[in-house]
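Me: I keep going back and forth on a fold encoding question. No explanation is needed for now; the record alone will do.

Assistant:
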Amino acid sequence: MTDLDLASCWTHHNPVRVIAGAGKLSQLPELVSDHEKILLVTTSGSTKRGLTAYISNFLGTERLLVHDKVVSNPQLDDLDKATEEYRNQGITCIVAVGGGSVLDTAKILSVTLHINLSCPLKKIFRQRLVHSWPCSLKVIAIPTTSGTGAEITPFATVWDKTTHRKYSVSGDEVYPEIALLDPELTLTLPYQETLYTALDAISHALESLWNKNRTLVSEAFAIQALILANEALPLVLNNLDNISLRAKMQYAAMLAGLAISQTRTAIAHAVSYPLTINFGVPHGLACSFTLLKLIEAHQESILPKKLGFILNDTSTILNNLNPSKRIRQYADYHQMLALINEMIESSRTNNYTSYVDFDNIKLLLITSLMK
């Protein structure tokens, strides 16, 4: 599939209101009603940097609870514990300030705080209880990284070290109500986090292109995301305090998030999840080290030919950054091959435009790790 069939049937829906621009964090008090009880979800790092106190003063400490215990790849048991802690606190609005793990935590709490179950994630995912997510709490998502696009997507990831699995909380209820994009909040992001989150955004854009669920709208979002990332990423890595470049990367991540909101991800993410669960590989690295070989393999057959020069630029960036070399710091070739069956089991492989089996994932791993 190189060109979309414009006569095919498709739908598009994204209800998130986006507010973007440098300094827009100051608009936050206008987005919350005076009577609302607010849960601020963030990290201890934000608290140490003074961002938590700054926002608390904005919103009023008398009506604010702070959950600053979020760590990378939020774990099922920790999320259930947070649900029990805040369920009876009268929360009506969640403000999430942080990277993808923070935004995912907020989105998950927005539905679990409403569901009448103790330890709901344990029952739903480990014990496979049939359920439907109730109406959700209002979420204002404020990203401080430029990668996941979680501020705009209808799903959130739950990691489970007990079962060594990754689950997804998904549905229209999981959409944030507002995404507030202020690139000033990304200026303190160090080099490695800037790189890995950017690789995640590029992965999302590409994964939505070699995807059975691709539409004219998702393709447009993905193309613009790649254009912005191609322009900004090589420069921002050497100019971390450049607000214009930071804004481009933030918008690239959001646009890629809009694309995967329609399509979800595909084979590169299927490969990535076991590597993150078993070896702690940062998500953006885990889902990007196969991209160069996927572009090479499918540039003529799956990817739209009109993207040629854009994909060439993306390939050059990936080649220079060499994520396949970086990932070998976490796991070797044989350790990765041992996880192929887990990679095949991911529902993400079903979104990929080509057939996926043990042998072609093995070949993808071998060729990706050769560099």
About this structure: The first helix runs from residue 44 to 48. Residues 24-181 form a domain with the Rossmann fold fold (CATH 3.40.50.1970). The mean pLDDT is 94.
